[in-house]
Amino acid sequence: MQSPYTPDPFQAYQIAHQAASLLVAGTVASRRRSLGVAVLPYLVATVVLGALPTLHAALAPLRYPTLAAGFWETGLSLATAALVLGALMSGARAAIGGALAGVVVIGARSYFTESNWELCTLCLMAVAWSAGYSMVRRGEGSMVGARPERRWPAEATVVGVGFVLCVATCAWVMRFGTDSSDEWSYTFQAAIFAKLRVSGGAAPCGEAFRNFWVFDWQGQRFSMYTPGWPLFMAPFLAIGVPWLAGPVALAMLILGVMRLAGRLGTRPREASIAAGLAVGLGATYLINGASRFPHVFVATTTAWALEWTLRSQETSGRTARVYAALAGASLAACAATRPSDGLFLGTGALYLAVVGLATRRVSVAHLGYALLGAAAVGVPTLLILKSQVGSWFQTGYSLNPHFHPWNKIEISTPKPSDWRWAIPLATGVYCWWPASPVLASLGFGALRTQPHLRNAILLPLIPYLAFYCYLSVGRFPDFGYGPRYELPVVVALAVGTGAFVASFGAHAPNALRAFVLVSVLACVRLFPLLFPTTYDQIAQQQALKYEAGRAGIHHAVVLMRPGIGPRGPWDYTQNLPLDLYPGQDIIFAHAPTAGDEQCLRGAFPSRAFAEATGNPPHVTPLP
């Protein structure tokens, strides 16, 4: 699946964008007493930006090129002017912030190209942040920062909803399968760990069993990817349900963001529920949770590292030391899954630790226990990588020059039209909904007191997103379920969305119901635009396995001939390690020549044979 991840991106963007605009307008209107006369320009800016994409699409068939060319510039200029006016009416600090936001929007409009939807979202985020900041008066703080009270009934309900939806996605959309060799590589390594091994043995017959991201190196076979996520998957694969690892990770993520959002506002229960639903109802999160990709797990470890760091500062004695160790282990697990993500996202927990030291809420001993927790995960990870690659502090990525010379880690300055890939403010609006960057902007804008949690969540996003902006390989459409490289921003989006609901305060007692209603209605319209694309992609990728099942063959080797399927043969050799799982029913092998077939028949004399040809594939038993 590639960007824009839906056959109708405009319809999808319009649905989520208008839903966010409606909720922002409702929030502004409900806080008119706090905003005073500024409520009018903020509403004007919100309405203009909410209607801008739809009006532009309506003008396009009229064939007025001059009008169409200047439409975006005029609309964004009007909204920016209203934003600055609203900020000026709200007070000195809001005026400075609004003016800066206006400068950013105007500068962005003059620099970025092919990014009208992204600029529209950016401008609406600026309006939402400014309005959120302006409507919370001094002394009306919206961040408690204390340890949240237990809310097990609400947490269990929301986590249960997200988990059930994710399992349903596994069954009915993914059909318990995978889309790419990337996902299978993680599964392959998890299968090795499930047997308490570090790597598998070499496969017979040369290239017959080569998989795109499974490397044969020095007599071993192992995944190119780092061990963090496969280690988490291994127990599930050991009991025969590898697909369940993702839904469990998603459930943990939902609980993590609920705990973080439960620290926000005068209505922490509502904030917590909204944050959990922002993840549990999101199509992209459900699909990625149902997949074998690690990005949900990265977000999970990030959220819990923050939560456990805070817990270590709120308790004392042995309990505090345990929480500190858990925080360190969570950060190490994040780095063991995706090293660059762990490096950047881990700075949030580090920030909280530094603040804790400065305020004497933690001691140096806490840091020592955090390091012990990190070592408990990090040292085995380093030993595994050393055993696989043969060198210290190297990963399977270092073998790419040997297997895939084109797959290089290159840093370069993006063109004006390329920033939208790493900061997907258009595709992200509908892929991430109801975890909305617009609603999160309003929520975080309203968090003006005790800002340490807000800073710990938001500041790491600057180097994190900057890295992907300058990383060449992440700049263009890539196989995945939504903008997967940026998926861990869900922690900020979900907590910010919870803060958005909390920002209503006592001014709108039905704020949570309004958020849930609008979110669900938008999801009902978005799901048919997002899930079928994934379903079709999975069906295409798994067609060979389905066809082999329909052919009624068992205990067989399926020989894949040249031209099989829409992708190369290395995507279809999805076998568990042959030496560790000799009893798997069907084995898929690449056999373009008679010599390859002869070798395979010699290696598997007791198995039946069949061949797969064509696109879509057709499986025929062989004598």
Give an overview of the whole structure.
The protein has 623 residues and is mainly alpha-helical. Among the domains are: 31-135; 543-622, no CATH class. Helix content is 62%, strand content 5%. The protein is built from 27 helices and seven strands. The strands form two sheets. Strands 5-4-6-7 form a four-stranded mixed β-sheet. A three-stranded antiparallel β-sheet has the order 1-3-2. Helix 7 (152-172) runs antiparallel to helix 10 (245-261) and helix 11 (268-280) packs antiparallel against helix 24. Residues 138-146 have low confidence and may be disordered.
Q: Mean pLDDT across all residues, rounded?
A: 90
> In one word, what is the shape?
globular
- Strand order in the largest sheet: 5-4-6-7
Distance between the termini: 38 Å
Low-confidence stretches: 138-146
Global structural class:
mainly alpha
Helix content: 55-70%
Short description:
The protein is mainly α and 623 residues long.
Which keywords apply here?
three-stranded antiparallel sheet, 623 residues, single chain
List the helices and strands and how they pair.
Elements: H1 9-30, H2 32-35, H3 39-59, H4 65-90, H5 92-111, H6 116-135, H7 152-172, H8 181-194, E1 200-201, E2 214-217, E3 220-223, H9 228-238, H10 245-261, H11 268-280, H12 283-290, H13 295-314, H14 317-337, H15 339-345, H16 347-358, H17 364-389, H18 400-403, H19 419-422, H20 427-431, H21 437-445, H22 452-458, H23 461-470, H24 490-502, H25 511-541, H26 543-550, E4 556-560, E5 586-590, H27 594-603, E6 608-613, E7 618-622
Parallel strand pairs: 4-5, 4-6
Antiparallel strand pairs: 1-3, 2-3, 6-7
